[in-house]
Amino acid sequence: MDFKNLKVAIVCDWLTGIGGAERVVKSLHDIFPDAPIYTSQYDPIKIDWFKDAEVKTGFLNHLPTSLKKFLPVLRFFYFNNLDLSDYDLVISSSGAEAKGVKTGKNTIHICYMHAPTHYYWSRYNQYLKHPGMGKLDPLARFGLKTLVTPLRKWDKAFSKRPDFIIANSTHTKAEIMKYYNRESFVIFPPVELNRFKNTYTKKSGFVVTGRQTPYKKIDLAVKASKELNEKLTVIGNGPDHQKLLEIADDNKNITFVTNASDKEVADYLKKAKGFIFAGIDDFGIAPVEALASGTPVIAFNKGGALDYIKNKENGILFNKQNVKTLKEAIKEFSTLSFDQQKVAKTADRFSEKQFKDNIIKFIKDCLNKK
Question: Which of the four pLDDT bands, split at 50, 70 and 90, describes residue 50?
């Protein structure tokens, strides 16, 4: 099968905001600019990267994107009935239901998997405790408890449909084997490194960025900084925002920034002496952006961080997700000296170019195997 003459389709769970999964789709679109993009919901106002693309949606696009968390059953139905058998190559970017599209015996389906679906597997208990739906939390809990058994069965069935699976980290590779019993090949996701190139400025204070949800454990960073009288800038918003404000309790060393532009985020990262990453993430784009800024990272010793944090070389790893252990890590961090240029160099292998080169090589290898 000739790589250049392939009839290609790109599939993703949704395009309703900007994040790591959407950057993967953008890079895939760069590689295959003529390939249509199939998705459940698309909001061109919230993500304007695909104005030159043919984005195809179905009936779910008529529903508010705010209902996304309530739609897994309908997404199962949508993707299960999305027949892409006419394509030579289907590439799905999925951490939910998009991996389940139908393909024919002559189609190669490669899934770039961000994680086995969180709300059925690794974060099921977290979603039960904190659905993140505000007043609708009781309804969300009831629905998840009631439907989780059949949904897990369907999700496992969907996981068998791709011919090949790419994992976004070593951690995700292990999770794919644990929950789906599938082998996968690791290709790290693309990070927009150029935006974070450091001018090697004087640094002070700590920073944390990201959506403020329970699994990110940003509360640990706020508590530890407050108790150590360390300056901390918390960038972002989310369901935990009010809780974090209450923890900070107007502490003069803790600053919250909810509407920073991309340029402002880059500036905050460049100027910080350290980035705190206390959660377990499948990969974690934000810490890599910090590294690209020459800013070392204090990270919990699990998850995607193990693919890029080298203890005492470009950051510090700590072993328990509690305030005491994080405080000890911050104290140890403060005794170390990091070369900003060397720290920034450790992010180079996560560039968009490296991602595209790896994806193209993987596709060519798959074409030769099938």
Answer: very high
